[in-house]
Structures are given as C-alpha cells and as structure tokens.
Amino acid sequence: MTDSERETQAAETTGEPGTPEPEDVVKTEPRQFQVSKPSSRKPATTRAATVVDGPAPYAVIATGGKQYRVKVGDRITVERLHVDAGSAITIDQVLLLGGDGSTRIGTPIVEGARVEATVDAQDRGEKIVVFKYKAKKRYRRRTGHRQEQTRLTITGISG
C-alpha cells in the first residue's frame, strides 16, 4: 500500500483527509531507569544515641478549677490564692508526675506528691468588657470585670 492509498483509506474511514495513521505517530523508546546502589552510610537506627540529660521532671497540678503542666523554674499565673506575696506554698493537688522515663498518674491525685512554689505577686488580669443591649428598646448596660490572679514560681517537685 502506498502513502496516497493510505491517505485515501484514512479519509474514507474517518471522513477527514490527512488524519495520521498509527504508523505516522512518532514512537519513542521506553524510558530506561537506573537502579541506584545502596548507600554506604549507616542508617540512623544503627547509630549510637547520645543522651545528654533525661527530661526534666514535670507535674500536672490542679488549682482554681484549672490544670497546669509545670516544671521547676516555671512562672505561672493562677486564680487568686489567699496568701501573701513572697510566701512559700505547697500544692498537694498533683494529678500526674512525669519525667526521668516514668509517669505516675493519680486516681485522681498522686499520693504523696507535692509541688512547692513561691508567690511572686497578687495581680488583676486584663479587663473584660461585657456589653448587653436590647435592640430598639433603649436598653444598654456596659460592665467590666478584672479577675484577681496570683503569680507563682515553681521551686520544687517531689513525690
């Protein structure tokens, strides 16, 4: 079959002259992939792990209806505690003790666990503005609230 006969046959079958036949499509060679050689480096799992220090002991304490995760040296702000600034306090409501590769969970508190802290200051929080109104009734009420707070520095965890 000659090229002109192929074009005629293609025009008869598809209805369009000059439609490329499958032989006219440019064929490319299949892509060749190279398999890389395994690396000479050791995988990370076989390297020796160096531990500088274990994780610092931490505790989860409950005070003022909230829970705080603390470690020695942390400064936290809690709901008002009725103690003087500069005094030392002990928090017995320890819900969890962790660190040094072990964790003790209380049911609900860890027996014998304590967190020591010093009171830095007695403060008040940011003002929260409450605005109430009733549409079309000329009823407007604006009130504010500042929560009393105590700032603590954690000095020790035992248990």
Automatic annotation (TrEMBL):
<keyword id="KW-0699">rRNA-binding</keyword>
<dbReference type="GO" id="GO:0005840">
    <property type="term" value="C:ribosome"/>
</dbReference>
<dbReference type="InterPro" id="IPR018258">
    <property type="entry name" value="Ribosomal_bL21_CS"/>
</dbReference>
<dbReference type="GO" id="GO:0003735">
    <property type="term" value="F:structural constituent of ribosome"/>
</dbReference>
<keyword id="KW-0689">Ribosomal protein</keyword>
<dbReference type="GO" id="GO:0006412">
    <property type="term" value="P:translation"/>
</dbReference>
<protein>
    <recommendedName>
        <fullName>Large ribosomal subunit protein bL21</fullName>
    </recommendedName>
</protein>
<keyword id="KW-0694">RNA-binding</keyword>
<feature type="region of interest" description="Disordered">
    <location>
        <begin position="1"/>
        <end position="48"/>
    </location>
</feature>
<dbReference type="InterPro" id="IPR028909">
    <property type="entry name" value="bL21-like"/>
</dbReference>
<dbReference type="InterPro" id="IPR001787">
    <property type="entry name" value="Ribosomal_bL21"/>
</dbReference>
<dbReference type="Pfam" id="PF00829">
    <property type="entry name" value="Ribosomal_L21p"/>
</dbReference>
<dbReference type="GO" id="GO:0005737">
    <property type="term" value="C:cytoplasm"/>
</dbReference>
<keyword id="KW-0687">Ribonucleoprotein</keyword>
<dbReference type="InterPro" id="IPR036164">
    <property type="entry name" value="bL21-like_sf"/>
</dbReference>
<dbReference type="GO" id="GO:1990904">
    <property type="term" value="C:ribonucleoprotein complex"/>
</dbReference>
<dbReference type="GO" id="GO:0019843">
    <property type="term" value="F:rRNA binding"/>
</dbReference>
<comment type="subunit">
    <text>Part of the 50S ribosomal subunit. Contacts protein L20.</text>
</comment>
<comment type="function">
    <text>This protein binds to 23S rRNA in the presence of protein L20.</text>
</comment>
<comment type="similarity">
    <text>Belongs to the bacterial ribosomal protein bL21 family.</text>
</comment>
